[in-house]
Amino acid sequence: MKLKLYRPICFFDIEATGINIGKDRIIEISILKIFPNEDKESKTWLICPGIPIPPQATAIHGIKDEDVEDKLKFKDVAFSILKMIENTDLAGYNSNRFDIPILAEEILRAGLSFDIKKFKTIDVQVIFHKMEPRTLSAAYKYFCKKKLVNAHSSREDVFATYEILLSQLEKYDNLKKDVKSLNQFSNHKNIVDLAGFIKIDENSNEIFNFGKYKGQKVIDIFDKDPNYYGWIQNSHFPLYTKKILMEIKLRKFNDNKKN
Prior knowledge:
Layout: E1 9-16, E2 26-34, E3 40-46, H1 55-61, H2 65-68, H3 74-85, E4 89-92, H4 95-109, E5 121-123, H5 124-131, H6 136-144, H7 154-171, H8 179-186, E6 198-200, E7 206-208, H9 218-224, H10 226-233, H11 239-258
Parallel strand pairs: 1-4, 4-5
Antiparallel strand pairs: 1-2, 2-3, 6-7
Helix pairs in contact: 6-7, 9-10
């Protein structure tokens, strides 16, 4: 079953030093770009993270410090990655919770701009978990009827993710085939900042989703506890979360000026 595309979509997979969005670093990223005419373009970057790779991370993806010590750092390849995903949509496996947030962090850390609102996103894991809860390897075996040989190699994983989505479209008649519909189906709703620290409530207000002000409106806390914003900005929260909070604060400031 063909995926209906109106512009290119980039399937991508990331290997990192760990799973902490704000602290860990990308060490490998593979992108598979699919064009509406079904042409494909792929690229893999092995990246020096600038911090040691923990043994527990190496045990998963097999990449050691010596494998990346002579590679470029992310800031040196960030522009090339941005150009490849420019004017595309994004897809991956657990990408909404991990790959996209950590990619956004690295891009912002490199001094470039990233705005998730420019992309529609498809998380193949969410589709799978809604239909048949499993892991990526199990999903590949289940949908594609073959074994994933090199799981946790970003190149193997990104091609497998694309194949799984095509198989999902074939298997589930109730899944619409266009990116907009798949974006809506596979997204965790109401999350504003990628990492899930800020959500949207039933009245379309941004609310905190953590800590002592969980469930309270962000703009109310700016008035109630002005130091809370400064604490977040100076703590180890993801850069994209800080960016969203800054936008909310600026919007509030501009609204106050108008009034």
